[in-house]
Amino acid sequence: MPRTISLKFPSFLNGKMRRTDPEREILVKKRQSHTGKYVTVIILGLIALSITFIALYAQQISRGDNTDEVDKSIKICITPSCVSAAEHLNKAMNRNINPCDDFYEFACGGWNRTEPMPDDKATWSVFDILDRELLRNLKTILITDEVVIPGGLEATATEKMQAYFKSCINEEAIETAGIRDLEGHLKAAYNSGLEAWPFFLSPPLTLDISKVVRTAFEFGNNLDLFSYYITGGPLTPKINVINFDTARFTLDRFSLLNESRQASREAYVQYGVDVAMHLAADQNRTDVTLEGVTALFQRILAFEMELANATLPPEDTRDATEFQNEMSLSSFAGNYTRSLGLTGEKWAEIFANAWPDAASNLTANTIVNVRETKYFAKLNSYFTGATPDRMNVLSNFLAWKVLEPLVVRLGSKYRSAYQKFAAVVSGTTMESPRLETCVLVLNNQFPNAIGSLYVRNFFRKEAKAEVYEELSKSLCIRSFILHQATAFRITQHR
To answer: In the predicted model, what is the mean pLDDT of the chain?
Structure first.
């Protein structure tokens, strides 16, 4: 029987070294040891996260259970005014929206749904809501059942305002009167031939500019040539000074100078043309043609654009200290308004007539401040040595600026002309209610009188004392409230 032979081959014969069984066992044990450590770490980490989550969840649940508890150390205002304000704020919010997704919709979504912008407004904000309530209250005071309201020196301030308001809302009488009252006003107040506007005379009509400016200032009209106001200087706040500033044009500076606003400029020209043609028709004039009036208003627009180009953009006028150019009225007139026939003495007379109580002591030596000297230099150079044709443009411009604020007080066709212009410039699609317009006119022309009337009728007697008491607690309350009202007000724009 053959003998069996057992052979052992070296491990390297299969292409790689093979470890013996004892070595393999050692490696397996090491791997198992490391794996166990990793698993242990992971399990411990998961346990820690679970404990943290459970703790946070329990804390949140605990807070939720105590939502009805009030921290008595926190002072909560529960006066009727505070409750009303809280109600308005709550209605303005949209609590169905996550503030982290859309904070504006969360804070203002309710407002946008419940307060749609009226068609006669270009903007609408919480301040307009207050104005609307104020107007409603004022109408109840101004509307009277008296057939005849006392007039003249015997009438009280309230009776005078009621008389004006009654005539202002009487649209039938306005339509019947046509331009009769306008012509009477221009003849009696200005006595300068303005009722014959537009001027197409040969030789051209030359207005007494100083007389027109003086009369217009008395009615609060700066004629879009220059503006003025009284304020303390940035370096001398306790000393009030008359400030001369640039014009406030019907169209703003951007609309006058930016090519993207060509439609607004065309609408402005058309507005002036429509008013001039309506006046000519009501006067049965045959010398006024559409072509002539259109050409005239193109020149008026060009004049306004030239003046606007001499002004600084708003962003360059923020630092008041850079616009301190104090000089006497006489120096101001000599440097900037002599071409208009406005001397220092005439300026003193103009302000004395406009502000008889406050400006009675003004003289040509009174110090004033001129903010943008470049603008006034341009205005002066434009009319220095001006031709009769250029002076005719100025005369028509001044007459238009006297008439323009009065257009909305005339009949429906004049107001329609203004509404077409407003629709292009501001986006309003309808005329404001007549009652509202009349109240606003009174409020703008007689702010102190109308304010006093409102306080007497709608403020509680205790309100003044309460306000003083609250303000005396902390002077910072007022600035804080104003800051919040400015920073967080909700406004819609067209």
So the answer is: 79
User: Tokens 């003004």 — which residue?
Assistant: 362
Rounded CA separation 228/231 (Å)? 10
Give DSSP secondary structure letters for 416-453.
Answer: HHHHHHHHHHT---SPPPHHHHHHHHHHHH-HHHHHHH
Determine how many CB atoms are found less than 10 A away from the CB of residue 134. Answer: 15
What does the pLDDT look like over 105-160, one tens digit per residue?
A: 888 888 777 777 777 676 777 777 777 777 788 778 787 766 566 666 677 777 88
Indicate the SS3 state at residue 370.
Answer: strand
- 3-state SS of 188-206 is HHHCCCHHHCCCCCCCCCC
Facing residues of 124 across strands? 492
The region of weakest confidence among 21-30, 65-74, 424-433 is: 21-30
Which residues have a Cβ under 8 Å from the Cβ of 271 and sit 6 or more positions away?
417, 418, 420, 421
Residue 318 in 3-state DSSP? Answer: coil
Using alpha carbons, select from 375, 304, 337, 311 the residue that is nearest to residue 214.
337
- The span from the first CA to the last CA of the chain, in angstroms, equals 115
Q: What are phi and psi of 84, to 5 degrees?
A: -65, -45
DSSP 210-265: HHHHHHHHHTT--TTT-EEEEEE-SS-TTSEEEEEE----SS-HHHHH-GGGHHHH
Residues 252-296: pLDDT tens digits? Answer: 999 999 999 999 999 999 999 999 999 999 999 998 999 999 999
| Cβ atoms of 416 and 409 closer than 8 Å | no
Identify the CA nearest to 406 among candidates 397, 414, 398: 414
Short-list 278, 91, 277, 263, CA closest to 175? 278
Between CA 407 and CA 414, with CA 408 as vertex, the angle to 5 degrees is 65
